[in-house]
Amino acid sequence: MATAKDERYVCNTGRQVVAGLFLTAVLAMAQPGRDVLVLTSTNGSTNNVAVFKLDTSAAALSLVTILPTGGSGGSPGPGAGAVQFSGEFGAVTNYVSNTVSQLHRVGNSIGVNGQIALAANCVKPVSTAIAGHQLFVVGSTCAESHAWPSGLLDGSVVSLTDSSAAQIAAGQTWAAVTLTSGSVLQLPLNGYGALNGTSSDIALPDSANMVPLGEAFRGDLLGLNPAHSPDSFALINAQKQVFPVTGPQPAYPTNAPCWLAKGAGNIWYSGNSPGKAISIFFSDGKGGAFYKSVPLPGAPTDITVSADGAWLAVIYTAADGAHVAVFAIDAYGDLTLAATSPAVGVAAFDGVAFSQ
Description:
The protein is mainly beta. It has helices spanning 4-10, 14-28; strands spanning 36-41, 48-55, 60-68, 83-86, 89-94, 99-106, 109-117, 127-131, 134-138, 142-147, 153-159, 165-170, 174-179, 183-188, 200-202, 212-218, 221-226, 233-236, 242-245, 257-262, 267-272, 277-284, 287-295, 299-305, 311-318, 321-329, 335-340, 350-355. The strands form 7 sheets. It has a 4-stranded antiparallel β-sheet with strand order 3-2-1-28, with no helix packed on it. A 4-stranded antiparallel β-sheet has the order 4-5-6-7, with no helix packed on it.
């Protein structure tokens, strides 16, 4: 039977004319004077952040700079949330250094402000989330929250007895940690939006409990991907009720929606690693349905939607190394490829985020 670490690696022409016209219209709507930037981590022994610029006139994605984070990466497999950005500030995990680097945007430039240390006895950060005035971090031993953007430890640290954390996400009254070993933790928030120091298991049904990986919130409703399950998408409410949804067929190992991003309204986008695709789901409060998959030229390992809902970015690994692809999102949630980055000599990226 594969280990949790192994599982993380696995989840490692009329219409064309219309699509082209739509893409041109979306590109023209970009905010003047403010570049759309896409950030990702190289996850190397010297960890760097690669910054790409979406050229809205030429529909190109070009490398702007590679910034040393000041820490060491080396996360053992692809994950979600290693890079986050909200407003003028962002964060990137340094797995070996046991730190999170704070990023800061000034104009059209990104810089590294410095390091945020983890709480005592907390190590190997794999995922972050920024929600309101809190930065959430999860590693192999702890989940914690920090006041944002000061970076000061806030709330109470939650100790983990399972070292297989894949991602952390935060809703309105609770946060969630997915564990590749097969479970999800509910972490209540205090009145200030920080962790209150407690957690409890959420019981998953047999059809949706194999390798929970990606997750995202819609308000206080959690969506997640039990990647190797027949029901590879599921919803969980604050009362711990679980509503599984069948994913693309055939299921794992042919398809495995692994990494999740929330789109507008009831739309969810998932990076389907073995299927080499973006799988799209629709939902209501108590279930949903798989819509379709959009093919990619490689295996995706993280996915995100821009704050304005206009763009989707996905990192994937192809024969020549790591790439970033950016898609325009239309009014119905469908995707049109806008640009793909060139290979930059990195084998695999870890985490992806927009800065607008």
